[in-house]
Amino acid sequence: MPFPTGYLTRSPRGHAEASKLSEPSAPEGRAREARRALLAKIGDFVLHHDLPVTPQNLAFVCGALSGSQPELASALVQREVSGEPIDQHWLDTLARLDPDGHSHIAALDTLSEKLEYTLTHFAETARAAQSETSDHRGAIGVQIEALAKPEGLVEVIDLSRAMLSRIEQVESAMARSEVEIDRLQHSLARARSEADVDHLTRLPNRRAFERQLVSATIEARAKGDPLSIAFCDVDHFKQINDRHGHAAGDRVLCALAASLHEMAGDSCFTARHGGEEFVLLFYGLDKQAAKGRLDAIRRAQAARILMNKDTGQPFGKITFSGGIAEVGADADTRGALARADAALYRAKQLGRNRVELG
User: Fold this and answer.
1) Which residues contact 284 (CB under 8 A, 6 or more apart)?
2) Which is the CATH superfamily of the domain at 206-357?
3) Sorting pLDDT into bands at 50, 70 and 90, what band is 17?
4) Domain segments of the chain: what residues?
5) 0.85 exceeded by the pTM?
6) Rounded mean pLDDT of 135-154?
């Protein structure tokens, strides 16, 4: 049965009618009914488009239908109006526009602000100490000239004591600032490192990949060396989760991550791009050579038998599909990413467990 047009802006049939028949009078009741209606809309949307029930998908759909993410809602509406499918592949592509690790980035921003404030305070303290020392030095110079007077020595001693007391205060404040700066620098370095790591596979994450792609592209163009990008996606990963559970699916991802990292070699940057998708940067290899390297990894992976340690039963053959593109003279590396992604999609359509060129 066709899905109602304009679904993203209308409540599902039945829920709107029900709310008319029994509209709660209290604000709490209306809020509860609104949440119930939103949950129903999310469920109907996921079922209609046959989307896997994953945290990322639910967050996307909720953000669009609740109105909390207007840009995402607009993208889904445009997709719906154009008649193009809202499927998992499109959602994964859309996710690439919004790098992960927002909480990490927020934490980094907070630490950076604290460090900047402490450094500014430290500089102000140092400038104040320098100014006060200069003032005291000038005052002592004047008093030295007055030492010939009986009261001159007493005034110099009092001034020196005041100066020493102030210097001790300044030194104490600067010492505390140095300790705080050192602590914040260590915390910032640790947070930056964690923000670049996928916590499941321990590979670099998409945020790290995006930055590495920029620097690798600049270096490759400067040297005139080739650079290739490969997207890899685990075949039928949903079936693994459905049959063996998400914990077992996570172990499969970790095993594949280790295989990709080890077999790709040192001249390759391997990262988890999100979900069951990985991305590789092949330094110094054109797309044909990169395809040969990735195809060898694919064959080796397909020959392995992975076991579910919880049940003792084999997972069966775990394979992946790949798409490769070469970073050329394009001003925007997104062109190479799009070609690699299209090649991956083509590999899936052609039967999976294969590598295609973009």
Assistant:
1) 225, 226, 227, 267
2) Reverse transcriptase/Diguanylate cyclase domain (3.30.70.270)
3) very low
4) 7-95, 102-195, 206-357
5) no
6) 57
